[in-house]
Amino acid sequence: MAGSGERRAAILHADLDSFYASVEQRDDPRLRGRPIAVGGGVVLAASYEAKRFGVRTAMSGRQARALCPQLIEVRPHFEAYSEASRAVFDIFRRTTPLVQGVSIDEAFLDVAGLHRIDVPPIDIGARVRRLVREEVGLPITVGVARTPFLAKVASRVAKPDGLLLVEPDGEAAFLHPLGVEQLWGVGAKTTERLHSFGLRTAGDVAVLDRSILVGILGPAAGRHLFAVVHGLTPESVVVGRRRGSVGAQRAIGRGPHSPAEVEAALLGLVDRVCRRLRAGNRIAATVELRLRFDDYTKATRSRTLPHPTCSTDRIAAAAVALLEAARPMIRERGITLVGVAVSGLAADAAYQPELSLVPDTTLLDVALDGMRERFGSSAVVRGSLVRRGEGIAVPLLPDDP
To answer: What class does this enzyme belong to in the EC scheme (predicted)?
Structure first.
């Protein structure tokens, strides 16, 4: 495999196991060792006890209960997940400054620079696992390899609660027997396409010329898969890259849902996103609405604002307008998830606000942020959410294989 002798295996991929479900089992001893699903209406995470019955993320609650009649459904507690994530990432950053967060529950760690002052990378991975278990109380799997891609695949193979090292001279022996669906970035449609040509393992793909893969999958996907099976993916983690967007989403379960219910859920998400914008001293130029329907298909709609902003009112107005335009689709297809994201981010100090006769509510937004910071996120919530006893959001869904 190309490049296999050029570097040591010094990239760690650390991935919390069934993150949301593991936090719930940690915090409630009655749930330990039992099949649980986190979410209402749609499964956000399943414990490994539930996964043995075929319960999977994004499955409807009805399907999950049919597969596992003894399933325990648990309402999500996102504040607990955020707190656990912060504690785990603190351990990562105490290990090395070169940390690339992938989602709320996983990251790449580059420990190559520690080879003269610390133990070997495999032992660093073991120490990370021990510290996460002792300090945060959660199981975590670590893959160690020469590249982030291989480390990610190694952690997938090692799950749950495992540790796996792929040495540079053993990359082909590790990768080639794996099914193509186990390769990071190969989704269900690509897997189906490869299977239709009789290509079931990474080794099957590795014997093909790049031009053949391009012909099967198209230029971008074909070149990527060729690089994957020949060990030609990038070798370094990406640190310090500015987030390109800020978003939140919420599973609302199968309906029917009234227009007011969906709008209330959306506005709660807008509140969360705008608080995060202001906390990071950022403004956004584009608002995107994300929807998932009863048949698990998805749709997105976006609108670019006349002027970048961090104003909750202005971003909410754009999000609600997008939702109104999507009402016919929602009525026809049902809805199980709503989300909002903002992009085109810039530093707020670099932007000159527009002159407007409309009152600027940003100072009110900042005052409300301060109250929530001091007294908790539920100190001030929208009336529509209080009446329904809601107001929760998913800051960043985990990758939950």
So the answer is: transferase
Closest CA to 122 of 13, 19, 16: 13
Nearest-Å Rg of the Cα atoms of the chain is: 23
The answer to whether 28 is annotated as binding is no
**Of 274, 267, 250, whose CA–CA distance to 385 is shortest?**
267
Q: Which residue is associated with the tokens 């996103």?
A: 273
Stated pTM of the model = 0.66
Using one digit for the tens of pLDDT, what is the confidence trace for 258-316? 898 899 999 989 998 998 888 877 888 999 999 988 877 889 999 998 888 888 999 99
Q: Is 42 exposed, middle or buried (0-12, 13-18, 19+ CB in 10 A)?
A: buried
Could you read off the pLDDT of 12-63 as tens digits, one per residue? 999 999 999 999 999 999 999 999 999 867 788 999 999 999 998 878 888 9
Decide: helix, strand or coil at residue 160. Answer: coil
Quick check: 167 and 23 in contact, CB under 8 A?
A: no
Q: Is 90 annotated as a binding residue?
A: no
Instruction: Read off the pLDDT of residues 353-391 as tens digits, 9 standing for 90 and up.
Output: 444 444 555 555 555 555 555 555 555 555 544 444 444
Domains of the chain with bracketed CATH: 1-168 (3.30.70.270), 176-241 (1.10.150.20), 245-388 (3.30.1490.100)
Average pLDDT, the chain: 84
235 is catalytic: no
Rounded to an integer, what distance in angstroms lies between the CA atom of residue 297 and that of residue 291?
Answer: 9
Closest CA to 138 of 9, 39, 17, 281: 17
DSSP letter, residue 241: P
**Beta pairing, strands 140-145 & 282-292:** unpaired
- For residue 224, the one-letter residue type is H
Q: Cα(168)–Cα(189) distance, rounded to whole angstroms?
A: 30
Active-site choice (24, 106, 171, 263):
106
